[in-house]
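DM between two lab members

TW: hey, do you still have the Response regulatory domain-containing protein entry open?
JB: yeah, one sec
JB: this one, 104 aa:
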Amino acid sequence: MARILVVEDDDRVRALLTRQLGVLGHEVYAVADVAAALDSAWAADLAIVHIGVPGGGWTRLPVPIVATSGGPRDAPVPPEATALLRKPYTLAELAEVIERVLVR
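TW: and the structure you got?
JB:
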């Protein structure tokens, strides 16, 4: 499976997403902000990043980015992201977006 970097500032959401990705068979490294992600030497295949995470700069991550947002369902995919996963999402939706991004 994939090595996935999770950047999520909400501790509960980060823990839940880490568990969900583990259930899907992925290896996960989770951090609370972009600075920690950029400082990490961990090599990921993709990143799942909450759009509102403090510190901004998530577009500097050197991997495809799946942005997450609790905003409007019809919001467009940010131009810096490969895909947008709207909260709340199901485990099946999470698996589908990861597969779609990794196939690119």
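TW: got it. Residues 82 and 104 are 9 Å apart (CA to CA). Strands lie at 3-7, 27-31, 46-50, 65-69, 83-86.
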